[in-house]
Amino acid sequence: MGESGKLETTQTVDEVIKRIGKSPNFLMFVVATGAMSCSCVGTFFAYMTQFTGFIPTDDYDCVSPKCFNLKRSFTLESGNVNSTFFDTDTICDNDMVHGVDYKWSISRTTFAIDFDKICKKSELSLLNSLYFAGGTISLFFGTMAFESLGRRKCAFLGGLIGTLGTLIGMFCKSYNFMIVIRILQGAGNFMAYAGVYIWVMEFVPEQYRIYYNTWSMLIWCLGYPSLVCVSYFIHNWHYIHLAVTLIVGTTYVPLLLLPDSPRFLMSVGKVEEAKRVLIMYSKLAKKPIDLDNVNLVVGETGSKDEGLSTLQRIVMIKENKALLLEILVQWYYWFVSCLLFYFLNYGWGSFGDTPYVNYLFAGLGETIATWPDADNLHLRPEERMIFCLGMSCACFLLGMIPWQWSEIWSFERLMNMAAIVASPAPSPWPSSTLTS
Predict the structure, then answer these.
(1) Cβ-count burial of 335 within 10 angstroms (0-12 exposed, 13-18 middle, 19+ buried)?
(2) Per-residue pLDDT at 313
(3) Which segments of 149-251 does DSSP mark as H helices, in order?
(4) Rounded Cα gap, residues 288 and 140, in angstroms
(5) Among 263, 331, 335, CA closest to 299
(6) Please, which residues have CB within 8 angstroms of residue 242's CB and are 6 or more apart in sequence?
(7) How far does CA 208 lie from the centroid of its chain?
(8) Is the dihedral of CA 198, 186, 368, 419 positive or negative?
(9) Could you give the CA distance from residue 372 to residue 317 in angstroms, rounded to a whole number?
(10) 215 vs 30, 219, 374, 393, CA distance in Å?
(11) Strand 60-62 relative to strand 102-104: parallel, antiparallel, unpaired?
(12) In this predicted structure, what is the pLDDT of residue 103?
């Protein structure tokens, strides 16, 4: 019996949230969107080095007899000096020295030139790898921190780390300093994104999680045109860091205003605070509830995994062969999918001397690839595969049609976009199985 004499009932957090969010609510959607706005800036963290450290291909002039003689010989051999001589391979293969043999004629700055890495592309690629190394470290420790500090606090901490890491790029004067920046950006972004994603999903009823998952991915895609605009209008790579700092810092402000998730509060024994958050959430949804006589629990009473430690859960998964197989297959799919996505997207810089148009195509390709994951399309796994492969074939054919051929709609760009569109195709199960 409760304090008021009424019979006390037992309800799980998910049951209460499902009751509150039985029908879609615009205010709930706005709050979730505000929390997920940091998804957009994930693109900034991941790909900003493609703009701040891009390698020019034909923006230099000869200033020494050695360079002029090379240019003359290239002209005699090919008849078209622009397509053969003005390339960084010419600089690297002939040991030409900046300021002695040639000078750059670009109005933009790039750390590839400032740090003398034009002929050391592997060191530039290492910066991208270190971004993921930072992300791996943060997710390893974040898995434990999410349960002790909470999703919201961890997300904000990650956002703070990533923002500060980007800000110090304003004062970066060496390659080694940039290594530290990339590790901080990776660590901060992955922790912030994972924390916010978990927070949102714990507030969303099961039947709507797939839609919020798709919406989060579309917000990520908005980062591409945003990053392109910032990088196109700001010519100094140090100031690009400053502008990105201001943008990403703004997206983490909502985390200061939002409460912790009820599921986390319950896991640390703060039952009354969890009830208070759920009541506040119900008022936002305009479906006020009374939890005075409710015995709130995290999961179903008597469930097999109730009260199990992390190690015990791992043992349980190991013993359940069907579940283990599904997890391994999904793990392999996400590994291949992420590998393909980032492999293709970090290759956009090779199509032309500047990455602006290229990364607009990247955003378009990922936007198209997002839609098969939405349950509102009602696609079975094999239908999703046909959809993805069909769209990729369409992108490929666009590049083959002569009247579509232009400097922008080039065959190479459309082929790369086609591969990005096709990347979700191997998924053996709809993604809703992962978010339900």
Answers:
(1) exposed
(2) 64
(3) 151-167, 175-203, 209-233, 237-251
(4) 38
(5) 263
(6) 167, 170
(7) 21
(8) negative
(9) 29
(10) 12, 6, 9, 25
(11) antiparallel
(12) 84
pTM (global) more than 0.85: no
**Residue where the block lists tokens 């890491």:** 165
DSSP 8-state assignment for residue 259: P
Q: In whole angstroms, what is the distance from residue 49 CA to residue 131 CA? A: 10
| Pair 162, 138: CB distance under 8 Å | no
70 CB-near residues (< 8 Å, 6+ apart): 62, 85, 90, 94, 96
CA distance 435 to 431: 7
Q: What is the DSSP letter of 351?
A: S
Residue 98 DSSP label: B
CB 375 within 8 A of CB 430: yes
Q: What is the pLDDT of residue 363?
A: 84
Length of the chain: 436
**Structure tokens belonging to residue 177:** 């300093």
Mean pLDDT of the chain: 78
User: Which contiguous run of DSSP H or E holds residue 388?
Assistant: helix 381-400
Structure tokens at 99: 């300021």
Question: Which residue type is seen at 270?
Answer: K
Integer angstrom CA distances of residue 11 from 14, 252, 309: 8, 32, 22
Q: Hey, is 142 helix, strand or coil?
A: helix
Question: What pLDDT, on the 0 to 100 scale, is given for residue 84?
Answer: 56
Low pLDDT (below 50) residues in the chain:
1-2, 5, 302, 375-377, 402-405, 428-436
**Res 435: pLDDT:** 39
List the one residue out of 232, 215, 189 whose CA is nearest residue 360: 232
What is the β-pairing status of strands 9-12 and 294-297?
A: parallel
- Nearest Cα to 237, choosing from 87, 40, 363, 55? 55
